[in-house]
């Protein structure tokens, strides 16, 4: 399959490349790091990659994760603390398997962990779990968040304290099986020439446990205001949406999946439309790329993952971080993960 072919190329590349950043932890595999500043520290909410017997396929069966650990960093460069298991799939009534990329938010002194998993019908949904501490442990709500589907939740808190949930991913993330929030039960990809499938978003309710509105599909356009098209695989949305705000502008960044980049688009509202701007992170070792962007003590950082620690195994990833630069014109300087 394509997945195996790309993985094999990456193992070859890995031998000749020097990483520009080291894994943040090496005692376990971690991926999809969502970072936030809570209580004056950086807290990281990654996936916990595990070795498993599942085949490498376009459904993502090889991403067979079962739990989450939360990590914290007091100062950049200081030891990364592993706070242990924060939530396990066996403690979630509605979820069967595949605990994929999570995110977290804080409101009123409580912490909310948002996570995707497959339910007992094999459908990816997004759940929420609550704790009094950013490190957990988290107690899951009995049901997935009503009206949610697909994967890769990311919660953005605006300056007015309002929270928005962004989510979605195609292929194994199943977003192509939904149209207008209706479940089609099968793949339904648009044709070349049509607008690419885009991430969904909705405001969260005051209690942080529900959607306050029906999810909307975000419009991502090119410089001319035309929707990014299906065949534009260097720029179209694949998975892993993330929103941050810099000097009043909303930045939506995401993975382009099979072209292996993190790119970004900007808007003056959290609802978009977002206009494509450029690359945040060039391809890393491994098939997937997934990130978050956060400001800590006056410096912006990119959190991302690659497969250098596992020698290129696409389902065994390690989270890393790198300073990120916004320029005077609002552009982001693309980050190079390696030197030749
Ligand atoms: O970690 C499993 C999946 O791989 C994530 O949900 C995607 O974003 C990709 O990183």
From TrEMBL:
High-level lineage: Bacteria, Pseudomonadati, Pseudomonadota, Gammaproteobacteria, Alteromonadales
InterPro entries named among the record's database cross-references: Glyco_hydro_43, Glyco_hydro_beta-prop_sf, Glycosyl_Hydrlase_43_Enz
Keywords: Carbohydrate metabolism, Glycosidase, Hydrolase, Plasmid, Polysaccharide degradation, Xylan degradation
Parts of the chain that traverse the membrane: none
Name of the protein described by the UniProt record: Glycoside hydrolase family 43 protein
Family, similarity comment: Belongs to the glycosyl hydrolase 43 family.
Gene Ontology MF term list: hydrolase activity
Source organism per UniProt: Catenovulum adriaticum
């Amino acid at each position: 399959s394509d997945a195996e072919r790309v993985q094999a190329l990456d193992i070859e590349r890995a031998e000749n490349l020097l990483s520009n950043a080291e894994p943040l932890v090496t005692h376990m595999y971690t991926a999809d790091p969502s970072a936030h500043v809570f209580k004056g520290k950086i807290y990281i909410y990654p996936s916990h990659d595990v070795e498993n017997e599942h085949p490498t396929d376009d459904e993502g069966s090889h991403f067979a994760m079962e739990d989450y650990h939360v990590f914290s960093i007091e100062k950049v460069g200081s030891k990364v603390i592993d706070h242990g298991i924060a939530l396990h799939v066996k403690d979630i009534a509605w979820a069967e398997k595949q605990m994929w990329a999570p995110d977290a938010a804080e409101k009123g002194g409580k912490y909310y962990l948002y996570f995707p998993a497959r339910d007992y019908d094999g459908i990816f949904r997004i759940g929420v779990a609550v704790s009094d501490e950013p490190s957990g442990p988290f107690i899951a709500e009995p049901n997935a968040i009503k009206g949610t589907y697909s994967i890769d939740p990311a919660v953005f808190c605006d300056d007015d304290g309002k929270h928005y949930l962004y989510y979605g991913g195609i292929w194994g993330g199943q977003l192509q099986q939904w149209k207008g929030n209706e479940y089609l039960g099968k793949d339904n990809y648009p044709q070349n020439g049509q607008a690419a499938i885009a991430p969904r978003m909705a405001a969260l309710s005051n209690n942080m446990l529900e959607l306050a509105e029906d999810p909307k599909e975000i419009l991502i356009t090119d410089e001319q205001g035309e929707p990014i098209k299906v065949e534009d695989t260097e720029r179209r949305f694949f998975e892993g949406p993330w929103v941050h705000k810099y000097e009043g502008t909303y930045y939506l960044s995401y993975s382009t999946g099979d072209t292996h980049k993190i790119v970004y688009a900007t808007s003056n509202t959290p609802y978009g439309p977002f206009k494509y701007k450029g690359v945040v992170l060039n391809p890393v070792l491994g098939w997937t790329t997934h990130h978050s962007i956060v400001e800590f003590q006056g410096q912006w950082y990119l959190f991302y993952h690659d497969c250098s620690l596992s020698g290129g195994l696409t389902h065994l990833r390690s989270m890393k971080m790198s300073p990120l630069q916004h320029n005077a014109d609002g552009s982001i300087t693309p980050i190079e993960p390696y030197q030749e």
